[in-house]
Fold this sequence. Notes:
Helix content is 81%, strand content 0%. By secondary structure, the protein is mainly α.
Amino acid sequence: MIIKILALTIYALTIVVFGLLSMRKTKSFSDYFLGGGKIGAWATAFTYGTAYFSAVLFIGFAGKIGWSFGLSGMLVGIGNAIVGVFLVWFLLGPKIKKMSVDLKVSTMAEYLEVRYGSRFLRLFSSLVIFVFFIPYSAAVFMGLSYLFEINFETSYLVALVFMGLFTAFYMTLGGYKAMTMIDIVFGVIMLFGVFVLVWFTFKSVGDVEAIMFSLNRIDPKLLSIAGPPGAWQLFCLVFLTSVAPFAMPQLVQKFYAIKDKKSIHIGMLVSTMFALIIGGVVYFIGATTRIMLTPEGAPNAFTADGRPIFDILMPEFFVRILPDSISIILLLVILSASMSTLAALVLISSSSVVKDFYNGFINPGASDKRLTLLMRLMNILFIFLSVILAWFRPDSIVSILGVSWGGVGSFFLGPFVWGLFSKFANIYGAIISGLGGLLVCLLLYGMGLSSPEAGTIGMLVSFGLNPIVSLFHTKLIKKIK
């Protein structure tokens, strides 16, 4: 326990030092929010990857998807790497960077206002970001708190408050520049850590052949291409987690801040390899929980009637396969992933209020100093609201993240992607596709569909409505004339 506390203290001090160093270099709102728009390839690649993956992956998704789908869950990780990383960088990266320079915009909501000439889109976008990123951030806090609860034998509430206070302190320092400086360190820790996890997983469960034999004995479908839940459920998970990044503000922001086109090409390759390793390994390990954990052997991870508690599976699994002296590596891996994700979420959510709402509608002439101060204050408020929601634990981590990603993706996918790639898309298509996609997502979720299903259908509706409505409006205007 002393080793864990010492390592955690060194880790926390390192983050604080980076934050203080970056704070001295933060001279403007652009520095605080975008690192001055001059972030290099490797830093951007790692900050994209570490923002993509967090405790949500290591604790929630790996546990639920690995247990439910078996080895087919690895397709989610592969889809994330190919679609959510490589194609996003390849298709959107250069366009977003060029657009941000040409139009002089720094947020997605600001872009939608300029692209479609709609103040409403900017206002509603800022509301969607702030509201739906609270559950996302809460899900990350939940994952970290479950991990701390088991590793340090403390209460969930104490762990939650500690993480909330530390994140609030860190985010009041250097902003995006501090985040990118430390994310390279975070990324290296994550890569090293997942290889350690693979080693001890094989040591505890057996080699690949033994794992496949054991899974087949439990349920042959755990080795099938779609897993026991079936192809539709797997498709929804892959689509939600891989296509949503095309319209997720905290990931799109990375291309506003990257230095140049050359950096995008390098970062694309680095980030894709990072995602393949992290995603593939973690979902593979998640599948082995079916072998290692039983209601008799790990009662804390199951309900009284033997049903798995998905958010507890991975923490219990890690406790069983890792020696106490090595478990600190796991803690640092998940902390590294989560701190970067939280930093990205907090910055984007705060900017939606300060930059898009306050600066856009209330005080357009606000000074850089005032905007930066307000950003720091909004960081604290956003973290407070996220911690409160995490305290109530409203659902499983996968379900909460599905609502967040589904809601944001359903609103932004149609307006943002079509706005970048087509001059044909107009304000009517953008507004109806955004509102229509979000409404469909929420209605389906309210009717009982799982959040990945509701989010997937909502995003498909959003993407399909923009060109249809834009075309219909254009033809209607021509007919009237």
